[in-house]
Design goal:
Shape: globular
Number of strands: 18
Number of helices: 11
Radius of gyration: 22 Å
Helix content: 25-40%
Strand order of the largest sheet: 7-6-5-2-8-1-9-13-17-18
Order of helices and strands: EHEEEEHEHHHHEHEEEHEEHEEEHEHEE
Distance between the termini: 12 Å
Largest sheet: 10 strands, mixed
Structural class: alpha/beta
């Protein structure tokens, strides 16, 4: 049988998963996205050209790679078609290689309206969502009133379902949030356009993946966001609305757990977070500004400035455990070049106790006081270095320290945004 890989973020997202998935993709048959929606952005840099992906898997720039959206992904038809058109305009063949589960929940304009109205109503207590309707569409899914992409096959059935669900959502919009109602006619007009373009791409993705697996083809499962934003295991309630951990690659695609053979966890050499919520090692000072500027820490999808801080090992340790990480890839090591010293969080003090894992409770996590070790920095550049022995000795010491403290091997180090700027200690596909 083929050996399959799951790639997940081990922090609060934005770790650089897209680049690593793109780097791994040529040795696989397909890249399979298993959760989230177009609130997640993956940035690929190929020969200096930047491509930002939101829904389309990060293998799309390789012409022989098939791309799948599993049933765990929520799909905005308009956002997906806009992304497809943008790629096709640059000469990328998307149409013939996209396979979308007809069981994907369909994100509608009323989800966006409710998401944004809810955030406005919360004021200072807002979660910090992207306002793109992701939470409300997942709510509809578990409430069993949601639409699926398969409803595009029969617009008369879709219209009947829409009438019922729209009555509910318009009541919430107009009576609770005092916002304008969404008109059924505009939704059906858009659905007709979406039907014509999307229905040829809707497939039984679970069956296709099983067939590929039994044909001994390697599958690469693509996570979005990061494990610390997981709806169950993140710093609740300041989390995303889906399960971000590696185990969700199974229910999010219909593949059995035993078909997931290796989990690659991606982590920055420091840490970042977007949106509200606890962040123990955040540096609201000159250090944070320096990390942000050097790391170009602005959301690829939203443009929002990221909060920046030192690497948090208790948070990383919890994430490694949650995901069953077999190997780590450390990204953006070069951002730390030139620091005289580098701090690294090794625990937290809370109510007289020393914790070695990030608490689940956002309230407790907010009250944590980080305990730091200070490590000597390095002045030489690590940018683009692809040989372990060519790294500055203190950069190697920093990576060795991380590896030792979290008990997980570092298999890869990303030393720049381009594909070739990747240092390989142990290739994930060769180590299974």
């Amino acid at each position: 049988m083929a050996k399959n890989i799951v790639v997940v973020g081990t922090q609060w997202g934005d770790e650089g998963k897209g680049k690593i998935i793109d780097w791994l993709a040529p040795d696989t048959h397909a890249v399979v996205r298993f959760h989230g929606g177009h609130n997640a952005g993956h940035t690929l840099v190929i020969n200096g050209h930047k491509t930002i992906l939101r829904l389309i898997p990060s293998g799309i720039l390789h012409p022989h790679i098939q791309c799948y959206l599993g049933n765990g992904v929520v799909v905005s038809p308009s956002a997906l078609l806009e992304e497809m058109d943008a790629l096709e305009a640059t000469g990328v063949d998307v149409q013939s290689r996209m396979h979308i589960s007809y069981a994907c929940p369909m994100l509608m304009p009323y989800h966006v309206a409710i998401d944004q109205a809810r955030e406005r109503a919360k004021g200072a207590g807002k979660i910090g969502t992207t306002g793109r309707g992701i939470g409300p569409v997942y709510e509809d899914k578990v409430a069993r009133r949601g639409l699926r992409l398969q409803d595009l096959f029969d617009l008369s059935v879709l219209e009947e379902k829409l009438k019922e669900t729209l009555e509910y959502h318009n009541f919430v919009l107009t009576q609770y949030f005092k916002e304008p109602a969404i008109e059924l006619g505009s939704l059906m007009e858009a659905a007709l356009k979406h039907q014509q373009r999307l229905t040829p791409l809707l497939k039984d993705v679970s069956a296709q993946l099983h067939d590929a697996y039994h044909a001994k083809k390697t599958l690469l499962f693509e996570g979005a966001q990061g494990a610390l934003l997981d709806i169950d295991h993140g710093t609740y309630p300041f989390v995303t609305s889906s399960n971000c951990v590696a185990g969700y690659a199974s229910p999010g695609t219909g593949m059995p757990p035993q078909s997931l053979h290796y989990v690659l966890g991606i982590a920055k050499a420091y840490s970042t977070r977007v949106g509200s919520g606890p962040y123990p090692t955040e540096q609201i000072n000159e250090t944070g500004d320096r990390l942000c500027e050097r790391g170009h820490e602005f959301g690829s999808n939203t443009g929002r400035k990221r909060r920046c801080g030192w690497l948090d090992l208790p948070a990383l340790k919890r994430s490694i455990e949650l995901n069953g990480v077999n190997g780590l890839c450390i990204t953006k090591l070069d951002v730390l070049d030139g620091f005289d010293s580098v701090k690294i969080c090794i625990g937290y003090e809370l109510d007289g106790q020393l914790l070695d894992r990030l608490p689940y409770s956002a309230q407790d996590a907010t009250r944590c006081t980080p305990v730091y070790e200070t490590i000597e920095g390095w002045q030489e550049s690590t940018y683009g270095v692809c040989d372990w022995n060519a790294l500055p000795s203190q950069a190697k010491a920093y990576l060795d320290y991380i590896e030792d403290r979290v008990g997980c091997p570092i298999d890869l180090v990303s030393t720049g945004p381009e594909r070739h700027q990747t240092l390989v200690k142990r290739h994930p596909l060769r180590s299974i």
